[in-house]
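One record is kept unedited as follows:
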Amino acid sequence: MLQSIFKKTWPHLLAIGIFLIVAVLYCRPALEGEVLQQHDIVHWKGMAQNSFEYKEKHGHFPLWNTTLFSGMPAYQVALQGAGFLADFHTLFTLGLPIPIAFFFLACLCFYILSQVLRVNYLIGILASLAFAYATYDPVIIVAGHESKMWAMAYMPGVLAGLILIYNRKYLIGLAVTAVFATWQIGFNHPQVSYYFFLSVGIITLGFLVQWIREKQWKHTAIAISLSLLAGFVAFANASIILLTTREYAEYTMRGGKTLQIQGDEIKQVNTTGLDLDYAFSYSAGKDEFLTFFMPDVFGGSSSQVIGEDKAFIDALAKKNIPEANAIQIGNQLPRYWGGIVEGTSGPVYLGAIVVFLAIIGLVIVRNPIRWWILGAIVLTIFIAWGKYFSGFNTFLYNNLPLFKKFRAHSMALIIPQLLMPVLAAMALQRIFFTPDGVEELKKSFKKILYAVGGVFVVTLILYFSSDFSGGIDQQIIQVYTDPQTGDSSGGRMLVSALEEARKSMFTAGMGRALLFAALVVVLLFLYMRNLIKPAVAIIILLIVNTADLLVVDSKYLNRDSFMDKDSYQVVNFAPNAANQTILQDTDPHYRVYNLAPDRFNDAITSYFHRSVGGYHAAKLVIYQELIEGQLSKFPLNMGVLNMLDTRYLIIPPGQQNPTPTVQRNDGALGAAWFVKAVQYVDGPVAEMKALDNINPKDSVVIDKKFADIVGNTVSFDSAATISLVKYDNDTIQYATNASTDQIAVFSEIYYPAGWNAYIDGKKADYAKVNYVLRGMRIPAGQHTVEFRFEPKSYRTGVTLTYIGNGLLWLFIALGLWGGWRSLNPKKETAL
């Protein structure tokens, strides 16, 4: 019996061993205690420091973060979970360090999918490595997009579970789908989940068409019901983050905005999502799908320079530019020339071998579901084109639910990364491990040659139709234009030389791809002539494809990407003299405004202080509008800074101060104060403009829609007092004493979806004042005023999480029971 078990399991153990070995060899510094220097993770640690310090003191994460943008929900930073699930994520990743765990998990999940598709284990290993090491993965890992990478890694596991359900493995399919979907959704990268489930919907539609044609009504009802049930359980398990994110999104730019600010011009708008232009930023050029099989065809990443490119230097040599000068100029010019003019960290290279095998799969695989897979691939390529395919994507923007909540639609290319290895695996399985595989290969060989040749025909057409201009060319011309004479010939000469270099990149990419295509075709021909065995052909493809991917990957994630932990801490989070000076102030309430140029894209200040600035992809829209309408202006509007209780300004290094210095602002108004007068205005435009000349110590600006809450009369009591008693992330308490009713302004950001006000324990209304702050009428006498952050979305999420946890454990038990009952399953047709 042990021999039988070993015989069945050793291929899978071998696969896991290979995945582990490849990940360890590629990311060896991680096992030596070194860590990645990731831009986004560094800033995440900056914004999350406040939450971790709070947890260390109180035993749980807060729901409100006080150090980012004068205060915002902590949902997207660090959030306390709930429930009684086991830590399956650590189990799946074997507790491996990052980034080894990323690659291992992606391989493991795809390998599970390959076995559900019932392909040979060697093919499964090849396809799994192709999915995990597609170049987009190391690119986003180095950038620090960890939640994106985790969500991507779990996609094949979810698809595996759904296919099990669709193939009548109901109980185990329900369990697998629910488990993997719980973590796929739970890592909270909605855009990845959106594209994935959109593609799953297309593939499911293909199954539905097949079932309806065959009148499988019962199976259709069961399969769809179980899929939706698994989806509900996954949603419930992730409901804390999903519900709070959904609630919060409505108050961010993704929920729309009320002001359009351009310079000094302010007008009222009423949008319901991201602006169209902003949503379509980071669109991939129409030709950039070529990077699927030609990684450097568009130059790689925006951080790479043209440098010593031979074609560039030769082109300048013809203009009598010495080689040394040409190299010097080349080191200042970008190599990337694709459509993502905002900048890209690297290409989406899937491996030329996998791409050609996927194309062969479309020819040789007879299951019609391949066309639905192709449909999902084509759709997501269209989405990735964004503004370059504006008619189609504008239609989706206006009509497809949630589409306008996302930007950087080039991210949709994660779907071809998932589905092309699926097609490649199906092709190899059909050729090598079906009874009529050889005959089918012989019969289809000419079609295969035509299909592969067609790829190069299309590539040549694109080559000859391209002018090899880049989105950055006009900037280059402008930089090298003589400011006195307006002569732009120098810049145009450089662009012309760049165009020659781009032609060289393109032709080199075609030559490289042709070699891989020839390898695939030759191996298939040798097998067709019975000159090599299937295992030999697969192993050759596996080794060559994996080596090819790792070579390209190493341009983006390599030994230089790591540093030791001590150096990491010093480089990123060692307080400078300015920080140390400010930290001597132990007052519980004041804010710091770092005047560095990247003040609204910097979370390092938030690591140490309650910052007026910060770094986050989803700021509160009212605060973003305050940034655009007030905080970005010079000279500084000290009235606005005073109402935000900005006690310290950090002055960036300059000619007279080589290191950051601190300037104290004694005009900061503290945590709360009473005002003498109320200025009511009509609408957000007037409210924002009123801040231009505000004296926040004496008066407050309020939209007249809040008049019933605050009231029209003020009988100011100069002897009245309001003082901060307790300042906690989720609870703030004040003591007041006045002989008459007073109007108080609180230097806290207005966020009605959770912050409740209480006077002496009784709930009270408060208003949005000074565009971003809170204000309320305080009755005469001595009172305790308290703000508590009590979002209903969080409480509802906790309840749903416990329900989801219980159902998931039930599904796992049912799946194990179903697996035990089907130890000798009948063969069924897989995808």
